Amino acid sequence: MRPSTIAAITSSLEKLPNCRSEAVTNEGEISNAEKQLGVTFSPDYKQFLNIFGGAVVGRRLIYGLRLAEYMHGNKDFTVIGATNQYRTKKWPSVSAWYVVSADGAGNPIGVDSEGAVWIFDHNQMRAEKIYAGFDEWIVNDCLVTDPDDDED
Predict the structure, then answer these.
(1) Does 25 score more than 80 pLDDT?
(2) What CATH number has the domain spanning 3-149?
(3) What string of H, E and C letters represents the secondary structure of 5-41?
(4) The pLDDT value given to residue 70
(5) What single DSSP character describes residue 65?
């Protein structure tokens, strides 16, 4: 992730400390999660895990390997829990992603093997590539502060 993105996330979490997980994941945990899901996390997402573990960033829960206090211990708010939940329910396209969030309507937001960020719209029954990468998604979607920009 770009230093400016890390700084923006850090700044937002300083105001809301219960929105960041306390523990920082290690490389062994990350490797185990990748094996469990049959994916390779993008470098930006791995960096997010190493620094933040899991967090609420702006308007989005970003699923990691740790739960922020705000997530109330709900294992569906981890990358493993969310990905497995959508895969078990056989959501189209999600089998090729790891799920890092959901929009306000419950549509999964995931990252593919190339690092691109996708959303699956259950009303339209189609997946749409929304950002080229995880960092771009955080900056242009998660950290959006203007409520008029929220299409959810």
Answers:
(1) no
(2) 3.40.1580.10
(3) HHHHHHHHHHHCHHHECCCCCCHHHHHHHHHHHCCCC
(4) 80
(5) S
